[in-house]
Amino acid sequence: MRAELVTIGSELLLGFTVDANSAVIGRQLAEIGVTVVRRTSVGDEASEIAAAVREALDRTGAVITTGGLGPTSDDLTKPSIAAIFGKGMRLDEGVLDGLRQAWIARGLGPDLPKANEWQATVPDGATILTNRHGSAPGIWLEDRRGWVAMLPGVPREMRGMLRDEILPRLEVRLRVSGESANGAPIVLSRTVRTTGIAESALADAIGPATGPLADVALAYLPSWSGVDLRVTSFDRPRAAAGQALSAAEGVLRAAAGAYAYGSDAEDLAASVLDILRSRGLTLAAAESCTGGLLGARLTAVPGSSDVFVGGVIAYSNDVKREQLGVEEATLARHGAVSEETAREMARGVRARCRTDVAAAITGVAGPGGGTPEKPAGTVCVAVDTAAGVVSERRKLIGDREEVRLRATQWALDRVRRLLAP
Amino acid sequence: MRAELVTIGSELLLGFTVDANSAVIGRQLAEIGVTVVRRTSVGDEASEIAAAVREALDRTGAVITTGGLGPTSDDLTKPSIAAIFGKGMRLDEGVLDGLRQAWIARGLGPDLPKANEWQATVPDGATILTNRHGSAPGIWLEDRRGWVAMLPGVPREMRGMLRDEILPRLEVRLRVSGESANGAPIVLSRTVRTTGIAESALADAIGPATGPLADVALAYLPSWSGVDLRVTSFDRPRAAAGQALSAAEGVLRAAAGAYAYGSDAEDLAASVLDILRSRGLTLAAAESCTGGLLGARLTAVPGSSDVFVGGVIAYSNDVKREQLGVEEATLARHGAVSEETAREMARGVRARCRTDVAAAITGVAGPGGGTPEKPAGTVCVAVDTAAGVVSERRKLIGDREEVRLRATQWALDRVRRLLAP
Predict the structure, then answer these.
(1) Which residue of B has its CA nearest to A43?
(2) Which candidate from A17, A26, A230 shows the least CB-CB separation from B23?
(3) Of the candidates B26, B48, B323, which has its C-beta nearest A352's C-beta?
């Protein structure tokens, strides 16, 4: 099945809002075997909405819209599309009653504002799609030319309605049309996450796309976190797609070796916590240039408290000395950004927090603060364990935010490589 | 001037990539008086690209595309659009030489791969747009029907080329056509950021859109950071737009009073650092459930080191006791999530880091860890100064990430309200 998206809202064209809904819809449709062939965004004008939807309907007969279902006079999606189907509008008492009850339940007052009646006004002959996450219901209109499903623009409401109302309907249609059952071709992808290895070295290790890699599309996606390897299966039924991706993932993991740390959206912090937990080890952190970002990443993972106990944000030299026991002589001789200081930070935070493992980061995040010997991006990382302390120094690339993120990723990876079996 | 965007790439339709480029382009065009009336996204197929661009050209005569300029066989933007203009393709020796020199300068080897020649292949009669931030040059094609500007899809390269090559050209055209000079209507917006006040209370304080507010569009944008108030001027020349926004901003700031902390993208952490800096005060932080996120936000601001010295991430009770001096009896009697513990954390970190001000956060970020008395989202914040310690307890809404962000915002706001003149 081919479909189109039409996203509605002047905010999209003015750039006030990034159209993230389109990506969510495109991905979920691809996973059930619906191919989005075009996406169009138009402003809040009835003629523009009607033109874009009519053209999309003519091309594919299957159109999903988002936005323009709110209570204000800007919200013209319903009448504009009703007109394409030659339908008038009517007030739906059932929808109105639901809006009224929700209004009262939220403690917003005894009377639904008059403006909200517009949200209960629907095209004649439309199927009403329940909105469990907000007030505006969705609308499904259909005739011999095809169907248009209208979803709200609020991301949480859109996602709920897509899952609850749209995907099940489309799966039924795919089955009925014989596109689905066992044989429907879908798009599925999987990502192997790597860190600590350059894209070119990874490409050399993976080599040419033979064997299982010949059956999928491989994308190298470099970022501050490392290089993600995304494999995508196009035009296979679900079971075969899963097999093709698993086989490709096996090849990639073997090629990437210890540089691979996770799958899909898994954060390296979660992998490191898992490794430490499985070995019964605790962790502390001492952070200078990252200022708490390493701790924030670790504690973003639910359940991190059984491994990560905390640590010290040692942004100033006084705090490095007094709260971590870094020697004045070390700071004077080697500077705050040095492997020597990083090692004393790691040892200090491990001793004070009484953990098995400690990581320390000190560096020049930039844009200011660099010197010819230690330019912005210079970062030192140390990891202390009962076996002793290790440290490294690197020049990381990127702006302040990226240098800080790269520094936390590198520190996590240093812990991982020290402890991984 | 009316224009359209066509963003090219199967990744966009499959939802692997969110089309953030469109928002950037829409915003910057609006600010010089170009109205984007439609945006279309199509996949990497020549027929789809040609159809979308031809239709856009027919409607407005002014089209910007992104994507599909890379070195691979998927990159079909140039020949697809050249065909619309009836042009063939030719290898440009100047572009090829530039690619070769850049390749060597980056240390990638002595020979440019054959595939990269495709990036030096351009439509006959095209104007080549320099890419200072990457390898693929942009292309400008034009005839009596109008123009198409082709930009790369990589965001950094796209932004550079938009700024360096596209906006200046469009400004010249607007002047020549008489749309610009003093009188061209543009879209400009400004945002007043507030925190600590509910949207409904803010709406009551602002009241009906009379006076300067009648001349602009006002949007309430609630999020974890508070409620942003965005005012937009449509269809006014630049000077008048600036005046209308300044007048509206004055009304909003007066209505929001002390709840307003900044403009546009300014982070509350930067405002708090400015207030502390102007009064010559230093700051430390003690964080439990936020695990370093407050420190990370403060140190994300360049130059924060003259105010923020660091602090303690006290995720475990042992660290709270041993590194901050929280009493065992306090933890036993009131629990780790209590105003009493927050107060001792704030006092402890201020004494140990020897700062003028200290903020402490402890809470249940969720999803687990809640109890009937202290459900997930329960957070206590304390601020200690020479004048003594203050504390509050709240139930914050949202998931783990949102509760943590809201907790840091609230702690920053507590410091701000304590110290603001």
Answers:
(1) B37
(2) A17
(3) B323
Tens digit of each residue's pLDDT (9 = 90 or more) over A322-369: 999 999 999 999 999 999 999 999 999 999 999 999 999 999 999 999
Which of A283, A313, A317, A403 is the best mutation test for B, with the most CBs of B within 10 A?
A313
Q: Which residues does chain A have within 8 Å of residue B314's beta carbon, measured at their own beta carbons? A: 310
Angle in degrees, 0-180, between the axes of helices B268-278 and B400-419, rounded to the nearest 10? 20
Chain B CB contacts of A230 under 8 Å are 16
% residues pLDDT > 90 (chain B): 81
Domains for chain A: give ranges and CATH numbers. 2-176 (3.40.980.10), 186-263 (3.30.70.2860), 268-419 (3.90.950.20)
Dihedral pair phi/psi, residue A214, rounded to 5°: -70, -20
Compute CA distances A358 → A135, A307, A394, B88, whole Å. 49, 11, 19, 62
In this complex, do A285 and B295 lie within 8 Å of one another by their Cβ atoms? Answer: no
- Residue A358 and residue A384 in contact, taking contact as beta carbons nearer than 8 Å: yes
Nearest-CB residue to B315 (from A30, A305, A313)? A305
d(CA A141, CA A123): 8
Rounded to a whole number, what is the distance in Å from the CA of B396 to chain A's nearest CA?
16
- CA B235, CA B35: separation in Å to the nearest integer? 10
| Identity at A147, one-letter amino acid code | W
Are the Cβ atoms of B315 and A302 closer than 8 angstroms?
no
pLDDT per position as a tens digit, B139-173: 999 999 999 999 999 998 999 999 999 999 999 99
User: How many residues belong to chain A?
Assistant: 421
Q: What is the DSSP letter of A108?
A: S
Contact (Cβ atoms closer than 8 angstroms) between residue A130 and residue A122: no
Calpha distance A252→A229 (Å, rounded): 8
Q: Residues B317, B336: contact at Cβ < 8 Å? A: yes
Sequence length of chain B is 421
Distance CA A270, CA A200 (A): 26
